[in-house]
């Protein structure tokens, strides 16, 4: 399976980079994984609703340009379906079984994802009703994908 994580913005925090590097290294024995960063749109702190949509649309265009045509797209969105680790593992297992070898997870910027990206998504996944920094979600997502592969292989994992 080929996993892409398409995400907005550069990762600056060293501790997050170290955690992501650790899990991508662990994942490499199960799957090919690629993290694709697209530039975030510079914007002032206070935006009107129209300006927020503009920012999301510009970031969305950059995201859509990086999605492979044959990828199964899973957008991380607060309004998405919440799943347990076992349910995520089952989802990835079913995708592999039915020939969907390319999976793209999408993490939006600080304002979220554009409507066009959400329309392109085959699934929407929520990790919580809480809001998390999008940089932190990279680490959480990579860890959960690693856990999913361990679950699917019947290997021990922390419960």
TrEMBL record:
A cellular-component GO term for this protein: cytoplasm
UniProt xrefs under InterPro entries: Alpha/beta_knot_MTases (IPR029028), RlmH-like (IPR003742), tRNA_m1G_MTases_N (IPR029026)
First-level EC class: transferase
Pfam families named in the record: SPOUT_MTase
Reaction it catalyzes: pseudouridine(1915) in 23S rRNA + S-adenosyl-L-methionine = N(3)-methylpseudouridine(1915) in 23S rRNA + S-adenosyl-L-homocysteine + H(+)
Main location: cytoplasm
Residues engaged in binding S-adenosyl-L-methionine: 76, 108, 127-132
Functional description taken from the UniProt entry: Specifically methylates the pseudouridine at position 1915 (m3Psi1915) in 23S rRNA.
Subunit structure: Homodimer.
Protein name (database record): Ribosomal RNA large subunit methyltransferase H
Naturally occurring in which organism (per UniProt): Niallia nealsonii
Gene this protein is translated from: rlmH
């Amino acid at each position: 399976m080929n996993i892409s994580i398409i995400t907005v913005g550069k990762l600056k925090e060293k501790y997050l980079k170290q955690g992501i590097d650790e899990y991508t290294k662990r994942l490499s024995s199960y799957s090919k994984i690629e993290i694709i960063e697209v530039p975030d749109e510079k914007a002032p702190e206070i935006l009107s609703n129209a300006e927020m949509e503009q920012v999301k649309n510009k970031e969305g265009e950059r995201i859509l340009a990086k999605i492979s045509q044959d990828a199964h797209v899973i957008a991380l969105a607060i309004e998405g379906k919440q799943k347990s680790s076992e349910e995520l593992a089952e989802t990835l297992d079913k995708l592999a079984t039915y020939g969907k070898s390319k999976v793209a997870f999408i993490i939006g910027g600080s304002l979220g994802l554009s409507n066009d990206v959400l329309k392109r998504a085959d699934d929407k996944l929520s990790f919580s009703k809480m809001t998390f920094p999008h940089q932190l979600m990279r680490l959480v997502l990579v860890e959960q994908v690693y856990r999913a592969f361990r679950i699917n292989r019947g290997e021990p994992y922390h419960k």
